[in-house]
Amino acid sequence: MYYYKSDYILTMKDIVREGHPLLAKKTTEVPIPIVEKDKETLISMMNYVKNSQDPELAKKHGLRPGVGLSANQVGLDKRMFVTYFTDFDDKLHEYHVVNPKIISHSVSMTYLPEGEGCLSVDRPVEGYVPRYEKIKVKAFDLNGKEISLRLKGYASIVFQHEIDHLNGIMFYDHINKENPFKLPENVEIKSLY
To answer: Does residue 63 lie within any of the structural domains?
Structure first.
């Protein structure tokens, strides 16, 4: 499928799973200005994330809850993703992100103590996923306007997870192979909470 209409209700059957070739390759840049079909796809993806966080709708449509979703996770070779979550300081991060680039990051790192999960991974994966504590991202929004975001903590982790998807990297690729709970040495790293 080339795109999803904005009123199309994405469900788990639309999510590609680990092992799919699209999840292992770098995705293709989206032409700017953004065409209507890409906007519609982003709206449909955002609706999935919002619906997945609504217990009633999640149960009705059999959705696994998520805070972000990248285009290649729904079978499209496009550099774009959506996020919808509230950070620990109660800031809402609702973004339609197109052609993101991390332009700078902190030296210090962080990780989620419980590890990370992914809508494309149907099994529990134990281990710490080291991420930069702070990042600065340049991207385009739904209207093709250039945006610059400074993100820290949980927001930084979510964005790095989604940008990794667009680069063909899965979260578990960052986990230490010999010891999943071993953290990188010679770097300041602390648990997010």
So the answer is: yes
**53 in Cβ contact with 119 (< 8 Å):** no
SS in 3 state form for the chain?
CCCCCCCCCCCHHHCCCCCCHHHHCCCCCCCCCCCHHHHHHHHHHHHHHHHHCCHHHHHHHCCCCCCEEEHHHHCCCCCEEEEEEECCCCCEEEEEEEEEEEEEECCCEEECCCCCCCCCCCCCCCCCCCEECEEEEEEECCCCCEEEEEEEHHHHHHHHHHHHHHCCCCHHHHCCCCCCCCCCCCCCEEECC
The amino acid occupying position 146 is: E
Would you name the residues annotated as active-site residues?
A: 162
Between strands 109-111 and 189-191, the pairing is: parallel
What CATH number corresponds to the domain at position 48? 3.90.45.10
* pTM higher than 0.90: yes
Query: What would the mean pLDDT of 132-141 be, rounded to a whole number?
Result: 98
Has residue 1 been placed in a domain? no
- Answer yes or no: are the C-beta atoms of 89 and 38 closer than 8 Å: no
pLDDT tens by residue, 38-93: 999 999 999 999 999 999 999 999 999 999 999 999 999 999 999 999 998 899 99
Q: For 121, left (φ over 0), alpha (ψ -120 to 50), or beta?
A: beta
Domain that holds residue 103: 12-191
